[in-house]
Amino acid sequence: MKRVNHKHILYGIAALSLVSCAVPKVADIKKAQTLPEMPAKTASSEEFQQLNLKAYFTDAHLLELFDKVVQANPDFQIAQQRVEIANSFLQRSKMDLLPSLEVGAEVTGNRYGKYTMEGVGNYDTNLSPNITEEQKINRDFTPNYWLGARSSWEIDAWGKLKNKKIAAQKKYLASTEGLRLLQVELFTDIANLYYQLVALDNRLAIYQKNYNLQQRAFEIVLAQREVGKATELAVQQFKAQNNNWLAEIEHIKVEIVTVEQAITTLTGSYGGEVKRGKTLMPTNMDVLNKTINVEAVIHARPDVAANYYVLEASQADAKAARAAFYPKIDLGAGIGMNSFSVETLFKPSSLAGQLLGGLMVPVFNKGQLKYEFKVASKEQEIAFLNYQKSITTAFNELQSILKQTRIYERVLKLKSEEVGFLDRGVEVSNDLYVTGYANYFELINSQKSKLTAELDLLQFQHQNTRNNVLLFKALGGNLN
């Protein structure tokens, strides 16, 4: 028999290994564009610290709604399950680095033909003087019993399994940040609906208060008509305006029902009244007067953090795809009791073992591996673009909200002064009408102007509140 030249085999394996080493390079993680600094209010401005949920939102009824959202909102519960799924993938990826172990039993049986190698071999074996009766083989039907354990292990020499574990870990972290982002968005939605409800209550109160004032003016006009100092036209104008305001009051009640329904849906409740306070959020001047480290704030946001974890996961996936070009090294072992008869299966001499080793080099499937690596590389580029986009969006959102908040402060001051002037104007118009120095048209206009100014002020207060709610999200939405 010709002797095998092991040196040639080793040379062949080495050559195949070198061929497999001609693999593409994984791109480094790109750095996002540098963010500009936000100017400090004063040279002595304090450094901004992360916001606390319960310190920022102090309305007890709103905080109670936050708790309900976490406990009962179906979208939040679904997101929690997705985090658990991501964690399961992570745990599975860790197990891939360890050897597998199987314990079990196998029973097979064969009937070999008379003119087969096995059939002839079994016949000769039974005629051998070197075997005992227990070692003779049943030629009519040859069973095979095995009871033991088997183990296999892929040696992660090139980091494929390690990078798959890293990718799973980063995806898990991204899912946890995604859960935090969903919670912040749910809190933002609830807060906006809650303060919309408060604004509607205040709007209703404004209409009711002005309607009562108008009723007093209407009584004056009726009295004036009785003595011939006012016309029927004035009476009809007042009645028309009264009906207009009454219709608005009813319409506001419809809006209140709609907003309450939206809140109960988000909190997983079957209808019911929403408990609420009476005041909108004031401007958080404490935040505006501090120096904000924009780099730290932006990267602490859950949407930005989640996109960065996805970027890291995509690079780990690309590294795992690259490692697939290298030879795959497998080790295997098995040990157990093996016999062709039940009687001898548990005898010490039936103990059998096996060691296996393999090195497989990809050759004809390298085209498929190249496509998979190309896909992984493009996924990494997409992940970076999403990461950069989230940073740009977060920065511009924060800048815009801070600027709007400062503008709203000035607007609210001017509108508050306007309401004060018009309050005095209504009193003056009533006095002038009674004394005959003003007509009913001026009286109606002063009432309408006062109502319009109060509604405008309320609208700006509501917009300012919405801005302050969004400011919490823009500054990172710390839920601790």
UniProtKB/TrEMBL annotation:
<feature type="signal peptide">
    <location>
        <begin position="1"/>
        <end position="22"/>
    </location>
</feature>
<dbReference type="GO" id="GO:0015562">
    <property type="term" value="F:efflux transmembrane transporter activity"/>
</dbReference>
<protein>
    <submittedName>
        <fullName>Efflux transporter, outer membrane factor (OMF) lipoprotein, NodT family</fullName>
    </submittedName>
</protein>
<keyword id="KW-0564">Palmitate</keyword>
<dbReference type="InterPro" id="IPR010131">
    <property type="entry name" value="MdtP/NodT-like"/>
</dbReference>
<dbReference type="GO" id="GO:0005886">
    <property type="term" value="C:plasma membrane"/>
</dbReference>
<keyword id="KW-0732">Signal</keyword>
<keyword id="KW-0472">Membrane</keyword>
<dbReference type="InterPro" id="IPR003423">
    <property type="entry name" value="OMP_efflux"/>
</dbReference>
<keyword id="KW-0449">Lipoprotein</keyword>
<keyword id="KW-1134">Transmembrane beta strand</keyword>
<dbReference type="Pfam" id="PF02321">
    <property type="entry name" value="OEP"/>
</dbReference>
<keyword id="KW-0812">Transmembrane</keyword>
<comment type="similarity">
    <text>Belongs to the outer membrane factor (OMF) (TC 1.B.17) family.</text>
</comment>
